[in-house]
Sequence to fold (295 residues):
Amino acid sequence: MSLLVWLLALLLHSDDGKSPMVGVAISGVATREHVVALTFDACATKLQANGFDDRIFDILMREKIPVTIYMTGTWAEKHPAAVKQIAAADWIEIGNHSYSHPRLTLLQPDRLRSQIRFTNRILEQRLGRPALSLRPPAGAWNQQVLRAVNEEGLPLVLWSVVSGDAGGHVPPDRMRRAVLDQTKPGGIVIFHINRRGPFTHKVLPDIIAGLRERGLRFVTVSQLLSLPDAVPIGRRPSLMGYRSFKHPGKPASDGSKAIVPATPDRQPAPDAAPPSEAPAPKRPPAGDTHENSSD
Ligand SMILES: [Zn+2]
Fold:
């Protein structure tokens, strides 16, 4: 374990008894336990429903491994049958992936809060259990996003290993090798379960078997974060997350080049005003021009 990680641990644990999982965007944890968290994003926007990859779900049902699925509120609304199946598999953990998949960094405080709260409520109503963490669309976050998410009682969770499955541009063999090569104890791997990853179901059995062979066992994100010796590994802020399109408004290219973890923006976003105390929304948050559901 690197010196940097231990220094970070020292800093975080001296934080006046505050949870070490608050105030940091978590890309994985440092731990002595041989565990890994597989995560599956179910991204959708108001206009783009995407789908439900039941081939992946069948593998998860067969393997019965604890995993975490990050859903947008729109995805949960557009796929009620899938949501029922996931709800019935109570060993699958639920995560909040915003309501309509905007870059949360670009939202005003009240809309940011609506994206979090409204989705929490949809997921709890439809799945019968709450979201236990939030993954910001495209991995875009700044201090305002982090604070708003933490204030809703959720840790902000990114990833340490990008499968590159979305869009199908990474061939299966490369995806399998990349995930197996890059995954370390305490890691968080990102896949997609919304039919954006045409090869995910092909490589997942090998990846599960390969990680098991290396002595790793599977945990949900909340289980990973609550390990007694877990120390979060942070990530720098990133205003736009994946730079998946050159011109705003044009379709994204799935972030599939990001076979290695995304390089964060060098310039941290300026600290914005704290979120206002907006009441929980009665209606879905307004649409956002920055929505895109590819990552
Ligand atoms: Zn997404």
